[in-house]
Design the sequence.
């Protein structure tokens, strides 16, 4: 982060685009939408550390320490039913998100925006797969959130991403994240998590129609079509064979 600040980002990233420090503020870089935050105040910019790094959102920057607590909570919890490797991958991902989100809210660069948002996507995807693993078994649609098997496992993605952060130059981080094979749109992943919880806690006919109408109301056309025509029918069929104990 300090090196990226000293160089003022980069004049040419892997997409042949500029990525200067603060370029995601406002509408300077259309690749990173929804980056206008009320905390940013040009008259109250903060410079921190020995390198006097300009931090655009000081509160959002330091608040990402909470993600490190998420990682330690995974360590502390004694009753996990998911495999040890899944726990390790989640810890590595939460620690990476802490750094990535702090980087973005400090720098407002495109690589920071990708780091922040795509780490959320990875964590959500792993949470989805952990929650559905013993139910879906080999079901491709439920496991991978698409109709074909993905080219990478979640563990392979996490390993590649985490190693890339200390082995590759900063502008390359966005390329690694963008080109890894996971659902980059976390809206569809959260929709799948909600659907799974609904089917486990409600009568299936109610869960199905609630999630159907939620998908139509909340998701865009492409996401909604996948949920209503592919994912929910598949989930309903699999869940019909699952018996949840009353307590």
Sequence:
């Amino acid at each position: 982060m300090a090196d990226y600040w000293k160089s003022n980002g980069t004049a040419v990233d892997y997409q042949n685009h500029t990525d200067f420090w603060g370029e995601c503020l406002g509408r300077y870089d259309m690749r990173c939408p929804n980056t206008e935050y009320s905390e940013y105040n040009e008259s109250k910019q903060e410079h921190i550390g020995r390198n006097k790094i300009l931090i655009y959102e000081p509160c959002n920057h330091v608040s990402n320490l909470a993600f490190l607590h998420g990682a330690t909570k995974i360590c502390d919890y004694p009753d996990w039913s998911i495999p040890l490797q899944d726990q390790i991958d989640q810890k590595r991902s939460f620690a990476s998100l802490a750094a990535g989100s702090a980087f973005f809210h400090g720098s407002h660069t495109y690589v920071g925006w990708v780091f922040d948002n795509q780490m959320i996507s990875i964590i959500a995807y792993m949470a989805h797969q952990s929650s559905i693993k013993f139910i879906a078994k080999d079901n491709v649609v439920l496991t991978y959130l698409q109709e074909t098997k993905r080219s990478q496992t979640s563990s392979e993605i996490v390993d590649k991403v985490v190693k890339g952060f200390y082995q590759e130059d900063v502008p390359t981080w966005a390329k690694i994240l963008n080109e890894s094979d996971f659902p980059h749109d976390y809206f569809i992943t959260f929709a799948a998590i909600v659907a799974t919880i609904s089917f486990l806690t409600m009568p299936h006919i109610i869960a199905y129609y609630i999630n159907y109408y939620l998908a139509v109301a909340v998701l865009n056309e492409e996401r909604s079509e996948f949920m209503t025509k592919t994912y929910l029918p598949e989930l309903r069929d699999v869940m019909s064979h699952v018996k949840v104990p009353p307590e």
The chain has two domains: 2-136, 189-239. The chain has a mean pLDDT of 90. The longest helix spans residues 110-136.
